[in-house]
């Protein structure tokens, strides 16, 4: 796998710290500020990678947010904010990357073509009523992933997605101190534990590598068995 990485994030200081950690571990990395809602930022991030290393082989569209509210109370702004990052951001960032990859293939037909990986969720195919914007955006990511896979196949570019279940990121920080929240998550997770970010990274690395060279248009769910679970809900008294 290539170890020359551009970390593009709206939170530049955090991205810079992560880049420093990669450099300290012997990799080549640098950080750029990127708001994926803005086409110009996405194009600049791609241009930064090309300026630094001459080409772009892999794109991982990982930006995402969630805003929770009861469906009847969710504001239009909350819905728009989530869709703008989670869905429009994937479209803009992947389109910028794909255009660069296509130009590289045209300039050098021997170039392998590249790989794009999107970040979906189990909530693309199952619903939680308090995160309507998130559910809608991740369902859109699945459709966009398949669309890009078809559109870019003639250029040798593969596009696949990863659908995490409950992963120990900042979004789930509350489970560290809230036993009830942790129990709710584990009750719907057959493997009986919360996933780790590295376990998602391993699947992303697989989809970006030649080990998945005949895969495109797929979403791999890394969810501890959650989607396979047909669990019950409380039944109100009749």
TrEMBL record:
One Gene Ontology term from the biological process aspect of the record: fatty acid biosynthetic process
GO MF terms held by the record: oxidoreductase activity, acting on the CH-OH group of donors, NAD or NADP as acceptor; quinone binding
Protein name as catalogued: Dehydrogenase
Highest taxon listed in the record's lineage: Eukaryota
Organism (species): Pleodorina starrii
Keywords carried by this UniProt record: Oxidoreductase
Pfam family, one: adh_short_C2
Protein family per UniProt: Belongs to the short-chain dehydrogenases/reductases (SDR) family.
Gene name in the database record: PLEST000413
């Amino acid at each position: 796998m290539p170890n020359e990485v551009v970390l593009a994030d709206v939170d530049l200081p955090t991205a810079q710290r992560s880049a420093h950690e990669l450099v300290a571990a012997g990799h080549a990395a640098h950080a750029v500020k990127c708001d994926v809602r803005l086409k110009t930022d996405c194009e600049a991030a791609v241009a930064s990678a090309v300026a630094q290393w001459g080409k772009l082989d892999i794109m991982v569209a990982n930006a995402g947010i969630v805003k929770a509210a009861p469906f009847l109370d969710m504001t239009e702004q909350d819905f728009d904010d989530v869709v703008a990052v989670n869905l429009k951001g994937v479209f803009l960032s992947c389109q910028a990357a794909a255009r660069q990859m296509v130009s590289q293939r045209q300039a050098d037909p021997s170039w392998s073509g590249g790989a794009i990986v999107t970040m979906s969720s189990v909530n693309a195919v199952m619903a939680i009523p308090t995160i309507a914007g998130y559910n809608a955006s991740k369902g859109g990511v699945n459709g966009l992933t398949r669309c890009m896979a078809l559109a870019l196949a003639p250029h040798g570019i593969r596009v696949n997605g990863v659908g995490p279940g409950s992963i120990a990121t900042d979004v789930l920080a509350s489970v560290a101190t809230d036993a009830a929240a942790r129990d709710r998550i584990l009750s719907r997770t057959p493997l009986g534990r919360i996933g780790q970010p590295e376990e998602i990274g391993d699947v992303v690395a697989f989809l970006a590598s030649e080990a998945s060279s005949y895969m495109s248009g797929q979403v791999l769910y890394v969810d501890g068995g959650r989607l396979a679970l047909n669990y019950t809900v409380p039944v109100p008294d009749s």
